[in-house]
């Protein structure tokens, strides 16, 4: 992984966080994966669950790789392309480790829950103790395996913590059906009942949301 | 150039539909001929047919030596054994468009009940008329559903029309470097070409066959003008730059002010003069007009999504970075309409400096994309 790649997990098999997402999706569902990369998740969802899974990817080379693998992926941008989908077009709309990199996270979430009955969102947690410790100790922007780019070149322009995300869901009226915190390798962290603990020790978070009226 | 012989009449493979075709303009052609070529073998289930739709000046000779020019087929990098449109797997069909000049009914055809050609009296055909003629051919070949319809430029317009008019007869639609309507700029370029033909005294008001001439000069200028739009500034700079045809030997030596001074001029003149040997001027007028008329959204209440609502077809849109004739924005706009319609759409832009012509040329990323998309569709079609 070169320092110029966007922050992504690299794994030989299905990325562990993608495996956690796939577990949340019912067989045969209609799925839109925003920021689908080379389409690993949609491939998995089609092959193992018979889902009608489609993808949007902002990196043209990745999108081309996905289409060349026979996957229904289009070049597009989470910030500008979701508005073109009709209401309730999907059962699940997935945004994996991309929320922190979009221009308007709140609007993207709104669009996700307009076009999909449920949204699955994962993001790296900026509340992790190591980040807090580094900032406290050195007074400088933290650098960790997850947050590994200098402040002036990171694509992650909207970092948030697990508690921040809970607040946003409450404010926007989204019901949190499931959530979990995990370490960098995607292993589930054992603090599921305690958001404050998860916020301190979880390196990434995964949320399954639905509209409260839905 | 003045003595270019009229277009040869060759025995093209064809089928005649004696029950005719009612055109969108209201005219009924009492009989139509569709000239076509096929490659590969139709399987027993008749489920592996791929229709290739050719562009403005293309024809049905997709993947074989052209009978007039002797050049390789215009898509022989794409269609053939082991190629993206694998003829070991697919049954590939290409028909000369209605209004064309390679054997299908067009301005060179004899007018019914008369022994003179239609000429410019040939009714104004549309992209939809072309598609309806192709549909007749497909039915004649015993094919109820195409596995795929694919085409670049005007061929892509036909693919879009196919998917809109016969959604259940097209499993996969691949409009390449195309658009859902012809832009004002593109109509403007066409008009320059048409005016060049009209201005040629050998055109004789469209009845040049009677004078035993062809408007070679006008048609060549039309081709030269159009050819510039198929390339890009980078491609012209790379291929020709400002190089001269034979530099002057001394600083003071006079070189002719006009004529083949720059290499790019000589190249364009060659493009023009070879084109007139294989294309009919009235067909050029007819087909450019068909492209100009094309506006698929306008036919569906102004919203392209309406044309594809609930479509079962899987779409692949491809554009090229340096194509300014059918720019990426046109393909993206189609992709968004398909999103609105809830259709299954893949869309990528391929980096290339070759302009609009990139869809005809060696572009490995494009070819990989095509092959992979078709392979994915074959899985879904259980082919």
Q: Give a quick account of the main beta sheet of chain A: strands, pairing sense, barrel closure.
A: 7 strands, mixed
- General shape of chain B: globular
- Examine the secondary-structure arrangement and name the CATH architecture of the largest domain in chain B: 3-Layer(aba) Sandwich
Instruction: State the helicity of chain A in percent bands.
Output: 25-40%
CATH topology of the largest domain in chain B: Rossmann fold
- Fraction of helical residues of chain B: 25-40%
What is the number of strand segments of chain A?
7
Descriptive report:
- The complex is a heterodimer of chains A (214) and B (383).
- By secondary structure, chain A is α/β, with parallel strands linked by helices.
- Chain A has a single domain (16-211), classed as 3-Layer(aba) Sandwich (Rossmann fold).
- Chain A has helices spanning 16-24, 40-49, 60-68, 78-81, 105-115, 129-138, 162-172, 195-201; strands spanning 30-34, 52-57, 73-75, 90-96, 116-124, 174-182, 204-211.
- Chain A has a seven-stranded mixed β-sheet with strand order 3-2-1-4-5-7-6, with helices on both faces.
- In chain A, helix 5 links the parallel strand 4 (90-96) and strand 5 (116-124).
- Chain A starts with 15 loop residues before the first helix and ends with a strand.
- With 383 residues, chain B is of the alpha/beta class.
- Chain B has two domains: 14-184 and 296-380, Rossmann fold, CATH 3.40.50; 187-287, Orthogonal Bundle (Rna Polymerase Sigma Factor, Chain: A), CATH 1.10.1740.
- Chain B has eleven helices and twelve strands.
- In chain B, the strands form three sheets. An eight-stranded mixed β-sheet of chain B has the order 1-4-8-5-9-10-11-12, sandwiched between helices. Chain B has a two-stranded antiparallel ribbon with strand order 2-3. Chain B has a two-stranded parallel sheet with strand order 6-7.
- At the A-B interface, helix 3 and strand 3 of A face strand 11, helix 10, strand 12 and helix 11 of B.
């Amino acid at each position: 992984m070169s320092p110029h790649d966007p922050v992504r997990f690299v794994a030989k098999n299905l990325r562990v966080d993608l495996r956690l997402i796939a577990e949340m999706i019912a067989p045969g569902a209609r799925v839109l994966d925003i920021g689908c990369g080379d389409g690993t998740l949609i491939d998995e969802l089609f092959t193992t669950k018979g889902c009608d899974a489609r993808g949007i990817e902002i990196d043209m080379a990745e999108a081309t790789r996905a289409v060349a693998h026979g996957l229904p992926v289009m070049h597009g941008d989470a910030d500008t392309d979701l508005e073109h989908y009709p209401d309730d077009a999907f059962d699940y709309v997935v945004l994996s480790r991309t929320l922190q990199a979009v221009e308007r996270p709140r609007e993207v979430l709104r669009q996700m829950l307009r076009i999909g009955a449920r949204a699955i969102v994962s993001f790296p947690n900026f509340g992790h103790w190591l980040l807090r410790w580094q900032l406290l100790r050195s007074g400088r922007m933290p650098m960790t395996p997850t947050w590994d780019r200098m402040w002036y070149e990171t694509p992650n322009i909207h970092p948030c913590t697990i508690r921040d995300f809970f607040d946003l869901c409450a404010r926007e009226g989204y019901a949190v059906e499931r959530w979990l915190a995990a370490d960098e390798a995607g292993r589930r962290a054992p603090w599921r009942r305690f958001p404050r603990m998860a916020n301190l020790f979880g390196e990434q978070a995964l949320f399954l949301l639905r509209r409260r009226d839905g | 150039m003045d003595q270019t012989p009229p277009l040869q009449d060759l025995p093209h493979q064809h089928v005649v539909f004696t029950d005719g075709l009612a055109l969108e303009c209201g005219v009924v052609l009492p009989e139509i001929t569709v000239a076509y070529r096929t490659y590969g073998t139709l399987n027993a289930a008749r489920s592996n047919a791929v229709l290739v739709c050719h562009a403005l000046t293309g024809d049905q000779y997709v993947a074989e030596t052209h009978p007039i020019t002797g050049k390789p087929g215009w898509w022989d990098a794409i269609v053939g054994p082991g190629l993206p449109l694998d003829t070991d797997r697919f049954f590939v069909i290409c028909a000369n468009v209605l209004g064309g000049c390679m054997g299908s009914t067009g301005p060179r055809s004899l007018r019914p009940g008369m022994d003179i050609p239609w000429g410019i009296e040939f009714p104004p055909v549309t992209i939809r008329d072309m598609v309806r003629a192709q549909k007749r051919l497909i039915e004649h070949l015993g094919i109820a559903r195409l596995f795929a319809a694919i085409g670049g430029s005007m061929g892509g317009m036909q693919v879009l029309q196919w998917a809109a008019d016969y959604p259940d007869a097209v499993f996969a639609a691949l409009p390449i470097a195309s658009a859902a309507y012809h832009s004002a700029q593109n109509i403007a370029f066409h008009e320059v070409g048409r005016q060049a033909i009209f201005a040629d005294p050998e055109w004789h008001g469209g009845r040049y066959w009677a004078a035993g001439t062809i408007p070679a000069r006008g048609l060549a200028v039309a081709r030269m003008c159009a050819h510039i739009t198929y390339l890009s500034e980078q491609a012209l700079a790379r291929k020709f730059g400002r190089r001269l045809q034979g530099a002057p030997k001394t600083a003071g030596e006079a070189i002719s002010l006009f004529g083949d001074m720059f290499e790019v001029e000589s190249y364009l003149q060659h493009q023009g003069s070879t084109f007139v040997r294989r294309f009919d001027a009235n067909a050029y007028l007819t087909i450019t007009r068909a492209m100009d008329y094309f506006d698929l959204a306008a036919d569906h209440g102004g919203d392209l999504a309406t044309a594809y609502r609930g479509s079962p077809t899987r779409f692949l849109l491809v554009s090229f970075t340096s194509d300014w004739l059918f720019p990426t924005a046109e393909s993206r706009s189609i992709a968004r309409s398909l999103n609105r319609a809830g259709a299954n759409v893949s869309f990528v832009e391929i980096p290339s400096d070759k302009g609009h012509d990139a869809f005809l040329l060696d572009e490995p990323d494009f070819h990989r994309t095509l092959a992979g998309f078709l392979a994915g569709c074959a899985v879904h079609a259980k082919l």
